[in-house]
Amino acid sequence: MERDDVVAPLVDAIRMLTHAELVDYSGHASTRRDAVSFYINSGASIRPIVTAADIVAIDFDGKPVDAGSTTDSTVRRGVSPPLEFPLHAEIYRARPDVRAIMHTHPKWSTLLTMTGVPFRPVYPQGALLGDVPVFDSPLSVNTREMGERVARTLGAGAALLLKSHGAVVVGATVVECFALAAYLEENASRQYLAMQIGTPYVFSAAEQQLCRERLATPGLFKKTWDHYFSKL
Questions:
Q1: What is the rounded distance in angstroms from the CA atom of residue 190 to the CA atom of residue 200?
Q2: Rounded CA gap, 85 and 81, in Å?
Q3: How far apart are the C-alpha atoms of 22 and 224, rounded to whole Å?
Q4: What are 183-212's pLDDT values in tens digits?
Q5: Bridge partners, 58 (sequence order)
Q6: What is the gyration radius of the CA atoms in the chain, in angstroms?
Q7: Given strand 37-41, what is the order of strands in its sheet?
Q8: What pLDDT, on the 0 to 100 scale, is given for residue 67?
Q9: Which CATH architecture describes the domain 3-229?
Q10: How large is the average pLDDT for residues 116-122?
């Protein structure tokens, strides 16, 4: 697949994450390039107006790959990955099934981690995240050791929360990953607001399973994507 075909959805996703206030001046998203490298927005990129020229291809050690090749010809000299690239690299290294990763800074989800309140599925799409563990450190994931710890905490799951920091969501495609990132924050916002009134209803295990069977489909992920894309 040509670079432009892979990078274009990633660019759209980053812009949509910003518009949805899931990413601000920081935060990053990536998509797997091959077994040993991936595409990610540069650390200096301005997220609301990111373009394909802001996407860099790097290996798991953060080194640029094939910057002079035909497929990666738009990777410019001097464009560097974000400092937290190990977060992505170590998840890709540990999870061959993952093809997209998004590190967001969502308000409501992060508030839960600040107070020790666990994420609980309180609306149908929230059940698609399954168990969401909390990485018990607010510090930047900017070393291989920290990235490995994040990957171990995530395990085989779809998402984890970084204490007082943000969230990490993974998916089989960029579209799926974006949809799950949106569902994570929507669930957290509903959970938080319901807590101001009383104790939120949490979906039972059986209800969660039914939601996953019915809602975790490419068509419904694309419907979510199209909804947010229409707002750009």
A1: 9
A2: 6
A3: 15
A4: 999 999 999 999 999 999 999 999 999 999
A5: 38, 64
A6: 17
A7: 55-59, 37-41, 28-34, 100-104, 166-171, 159-162, 134-135
A8: 53
A9: 3-Layer(aba) Sandwich (3.40)
A10: 97
Percent of the chain with pLDDT strictly greater than 70: 94
- pLDDT by residue (tens digit) across 1-28? 689 899 999 999 999 999 999 999 999 9
Question: 82, 36, 34, 84: which is closest to 56 by C-alpha?
Answer: 82
Closest CA to 103 of 30, 158, 161, 27: 27
Angle among Cα 140, 141, 144 to the nearest 5 degrees reads: 145
The encoded tokens of residue 144 equal 């291989």
With cut-offs at 50, 70 and 90, classify the pLDDT of residue 79: confident
Residue showing tokens 């170590």: 90
Report field, pTM of the whole predicted structure over 0.85: yes
Q: Tell me how far apart the alpha carbons of residues 204 and 141 are, in angstroms, rounded to a whole number.
A: 33
